[in-house]
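Propose amino acids for all 343 sites.
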């Protein structure tokens, strides 16, 4: 790694450069993440938003080396953590980082927790994997972790099985597992999707408290812009595997640039507005096999699309202040630079 790369990567806790992740469909690979670049600093909460099928979860699995073997692969790009490139690490090497330095909370805790092992066993397994610790101390630590995530009867829960717990408690267990080794980066993939509104608020408050106490960075993957407004410092908007807008959370809500972002914001119900029907975005995210090869991938759903939107591929480029970036031909900055292929 040259000195320039080290200097760039050291400015961020995690840096992703030109990442392409593809899946094998009928013997051919199709990109689910397409030329994605971003970084996150220490103590920052970064939101990644977009509809289902936009590549948000695939991006997180790529970072964690958890793509399904033989089906998904990172085709191109680089991932740096604390200045060290991690996308080419062996299984043994990444296991030293995963769970200790970088942890992840998955969408559905019932399928992430093993139904045949107790909560305590699964928590202790994380500790044994990264620490030299006795069984007695590991059990005590597991109980303390359960208490730290707001489970009052931790001494009983440690000997219970996942099916004996409510959805909210299972999600708290997943958070306890994720923070067991005090990671520097936590990736939370739709951590509140399956929970009711009251429990959602409790889980988000818990994550914020943990982040404040440990100066931890969080990548929060969600389709809920209300969660983004409540939690995040900066936001990436993804569509069909690409980042179409980058902004601070304030800029995203008060000065959205991309038509897709505007339509997402327009579909949020508002207390001050009395409407019979909420606005929606017509059409669906294209499948991997039907992804447009040129032009803006949102063009066929965009109410502002021009003929060139179907033939010229926009570039993510600065537009406005505070590092706000957008990939849309409505803005002159997003047009491909002279001499560069539009495809």
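Proposal:
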């Amino acid at each position: 790694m040259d000195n320039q790369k080290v200097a760039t990567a050291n400015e961020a806790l995690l840096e992703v450069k030109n990442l392409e992740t593809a899946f094998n469909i009928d013997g051919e690979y199709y990109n689910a993440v397409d030329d994605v670049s971003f970084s996150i600093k220490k103590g920052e909460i970064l939101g990644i938003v977009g509809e289902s099928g936009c590549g948000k979860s695939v991006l997180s699995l790529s970072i964690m080396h958890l793509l399904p073997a033989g089906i998904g692969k990172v085709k191109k790009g680089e991932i740096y953590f604390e200045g060290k490139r991690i996308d080419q690490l062996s299984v043994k090497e990444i296991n030293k980082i995963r769970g200790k330095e970088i942890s992840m909370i998955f969408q559905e805790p019932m399928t992430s927790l093993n139904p045949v092992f107790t909560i305590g066993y699964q928590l202790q397994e994380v500790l044994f994997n990264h620490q030299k610790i006795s069984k007695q101390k590991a059990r005590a630590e597991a109980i303390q972790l359960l208490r730290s995530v707001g489970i009052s009867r931790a001494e009983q829960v440690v000997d219970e099985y996942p099916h004996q717990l409510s959805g909210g408690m299972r999600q708290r267990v997943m958070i306890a597992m994720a923070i067991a080794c005090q990671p520097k980066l936590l990736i939370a993939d739709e951590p509140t999707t399956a929970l009711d509104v009251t429990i959602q608020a409790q889980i988000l408050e818990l994550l914020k408290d943990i982040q404040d106490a440990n100066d931890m960075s969080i990548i929060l993957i969600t389709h809920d812009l209300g969660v983004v407004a409540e939690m995040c410092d900066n936001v990436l908007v993804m569509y069909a595997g690409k980042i179409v807008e980058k902004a601070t959370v304030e800029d995203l809500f008060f000065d959205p640039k991309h038509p897709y972002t505007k339509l997402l914001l327009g579909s949020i119900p508002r207390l001050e507005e009395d409407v019979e029907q909420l606005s929606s975005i017509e059409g669906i995210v294209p499948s991997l096999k039907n992804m447009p090869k040129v032009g803006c991938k949102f063009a066929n759903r965009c109410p502002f699309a021009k003929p060139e939107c179907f033939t010229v591929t926009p570039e993510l480029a600065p537009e406005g202040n505070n590092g706000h970036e957008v990939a849309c031909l409505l803005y002159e900055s997003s047009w491909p630079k002279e001499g560069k292929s539009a495809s």
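The chain is about 30% helix and 20% strand. The mean pLDDT is 90.
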